[in-house]
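**Fold tokens**
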Amino acid sequence: MASDHERQNSLVITTSIFTVLATIVVLARTFVRAILIRKPGFDDYTMIIAMLFSIAYLVEVFVGKANHIGFPSATLSSENMISLLKNTLAIQITYYVCVSTIKISILCMYLRFAVTRSFHVLCISTIVFHILFFIVCIVVTLSQCQPLHRMWDLTQTAREDCINTTAFFYFTSGFNIVTDVWILVLPIKTLMGILRPRKEKIALVIIFGVGALATITSIIRLHTIYTYTLAEDLFKESILVNVWSVLEINIGIICASVPALKPLFTPRALREATDRNERRTGYQYHSQERSGFNSNGSKPGDTEQPYVMDRVGGQPDAKTIIEDTSRGSGNE
């Protein structure tokens, strides 16, 4: 059985390695979108926020290490325990920020290939829902004890002024797992409908399938919450739940950022990205009934294209796909 020092070191090492990996991936993503393609979007901005809070989690782990996180309560001083409980509050907020921004980033990325109004509405609705859920989580976390300082009050009666955090953590973890699955399956039909070679479609599905790793870590984290809440010594048993929280966050960041890195590994995609870096970002809904003009300012009469979607990770946008298809494969 691992000693307390070994268990603590496993948390520090795991957090350090995966935070560094996630940071490298996000920096590479930012380089592609901001420097190569010159088309950063809300998906990139929210992922940068997730990365910054992931780094904050790393700092909080080191704060926990300084106060002997994972050690039996009998070996801790009152100052250590109070510091660890305050640090726990910071970790809870950091976790909810990370998870929410990662999911919002993924949904904003989906908007880049939202070729139908129904898919666009689903993405926007899910984003709004996650924002509201995030607000609820933060409000509940900051009001879990009345007053809040009761959370780190070590007296026996202090917990009577706090909510049932076990039930709250079960609920939020279960909700995150359900929404993970929803976000994974949401774009599959749309991706399969895009006019791209079959190999590229399969590659896209595989990339999104890798995102299932984050869902798996969420499920494992839920199990660690269960064992943590049943433990007699919460200070000692806090290592595993933090390890899997760190893994869930950083694996989510990495999986959500991988599709944007394609230009770094595909010369043709890189060439296309740099050649078209002046084109307008995002998608645009064109309604002749509302404006009376097409997107280029001309009079109505041409076939209406409901959406123009931006490329994702160097992929041609919907307008380019339509134009290439109309010209035929011999014109490439």
Q: What stands out?
A: Residues 4-268 form a domain with the Rhopdopsin 7-helix transmembrane proteins fold (CATH 1.20.1070). The chain has 13 helices and two strands. Residues 280-332 have pLDDT under 50 and may be disordered. The chain has two domains: 4-268, 281-331.
